[in-house]
Design brief:
This protein has 194 residues and is mostly helical. The chain contains eleven helices and no strands. Helix 1 packs across helix 2 and helix 1 packs across helix 4. The chain is elongated and about 60 Å long.
Length: 194
Amino acid sequence: MNSDAEAGLRTRLVDVGVELVAAEGAQALTLREIARRAGVSHGAPRRYFPTHLELLSAIARRGFDALAQQAAAALVDGTADPRARLTRLSRTYLRFASDNPGMYELMFRHDLLESGHLGLRETSLPLFGLLTELVGGVRPEADARLVAGALWANLHGIAQLWGWGSLQLATGVQDFDALLRSALDAHLGPEGGR
């Protein structure tokens, strides 16, 4: 098989994995099922991804790339104040999680991030760096990394609990914007210092 065909099959395996995680969730991502849907033998993925973790990492990387692109689009207006930009970034994060629950779950699996395959940490850290920079613009007196970490944990919790339906049940809200405003106020202080 020539290198173009090999690259094509490698890409197709990842494409199939992305489609599968979107349709059926992260638990559906077995090597056998990805191979079946790609129309290759169940052993074929091992030629390109020696371990299941490497294939999952390649699929998760697509998710991080998509989230980074959406974040960049949300922040295209660099003239807005840091809090407005932080609000847009946070909303984008929550919307991504809501629209892509399987991919979102896969992206933040500890075993993938810990493994170092495909540099997923290096892919996700710039987004955290942007979050930290914006928090620093809103709260220059604070340790921006710690506040950003707490805010991110809060956003991640909102995303997961929203996805499970728990927050809608507990709060009675049908839109996560009120929760987002509350989280931002908790970590940044009330908007406008009110």
